[in-house]
């Protein structure tokens, strides 16, 4: 059974999530790929783990970070999703996943992660869940071209936090995608399960990975997103407070 990394924090209203923090392939699993692929975006959200840690320290917020590569199992997918255990990712074939024991990987990795996250939600009762991801400037396959955004805000039905985040980031002069580079209405599994299902405001923050592939970029985005998340939390909390 795999144990996610948990960061202690005060119950300050924000809970941070990093589903794609790791490129680790546990012992006993052979993906049969070139090890160099583990340093690509198909295996890990580059920069997301240090950015999540920076935000947790800055905000004093609790956080959960995955400890297994999404090439082993994608924790940001429903258990029945076709790409839960990807056979191909951005044009790269993952031979070791062709005959993977789906049920065993769910039990070993997916279920413990989401169980730990559910426990954090119950313990801290946050007003905001913020999922931290990164995206590649351009996909290797598909010919979609270079993505023009520095950041993207993803969401499904609950727009309370997301629309405000887009507004704040654009006002700061940051090219920000609204449900781009892909739509949270299609891929929003973690926040659907732990946010919307519990009535908790949530958003996924995507930062272009060349922006946070180095310490200076992580520090810069920590400042940008830290203040953004604090503003969102404060506004959500004020709306939730009874009138006096």
UniProtKB/TrEMBL annotation:
UniProt xrefs under Pfam families: FGase (PF05013)
Keyword Hydrolase carried by entry: yes
Entry keyword set: Hydrolase
InterPro entries assigned: N-FG_amidohydro, UCP029730
Isomerase in keyword set: no
Molecular function GO labels: hydrolase activity
Protein name as catalogued: N-formylglutamate amidohydrolase
Organism encoding this protein: Sphingomonas alpina
């Amino acid at each position: 059974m795999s144990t996610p990394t948990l960061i202690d924090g005060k119950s300050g209203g924000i809970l941070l999530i990093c589903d794609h923090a790791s490129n680790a392939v546990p012992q006993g699993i052979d993906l049969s790929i070139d090890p160099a692929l583990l340093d690509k975006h198909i295996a890990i959200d580059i920069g997301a783990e240090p950015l999540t840690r920076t935000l947790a320290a800055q905000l004093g917020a609790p956080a959960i970070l995955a400890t297994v590569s999404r090439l082993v199992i994608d924790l940001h997918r429903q258990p029945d999703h076709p790409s839960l255990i990807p056979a191909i990712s951005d044009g790269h074939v993952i031979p070791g996943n062709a005959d993977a024991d789906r049920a065993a990987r769910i039990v070993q990795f997916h279920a413990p992660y989401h169980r730990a996250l559910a426990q954090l939600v119950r313990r801290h009762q946050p007003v905001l869940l913020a999922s931290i991801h990164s995206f590649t400037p351009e996909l290797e396959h598909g010919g979609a071209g270079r993505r023009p955004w520095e950041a993207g805000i993803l969401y499904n039905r609950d727009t309370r936090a997301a629309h405000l985040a887009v507004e704040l980031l654009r006002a700061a002069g940051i090219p920000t995608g609204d449900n781009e580079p892909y739509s949270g209405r299609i891929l929003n599994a973690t926040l659907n399960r732990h946010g919307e299902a519990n009535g908790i405001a949530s958003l996924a923050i995507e930062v272009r990975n060349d922006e946070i592939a180095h310490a200076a970029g992580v520090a810069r985005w920590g400042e940008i997103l830290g203040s953004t998340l604090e503003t969102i939390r404060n506004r959500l909390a004020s709306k939730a407070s009874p009138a006096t």
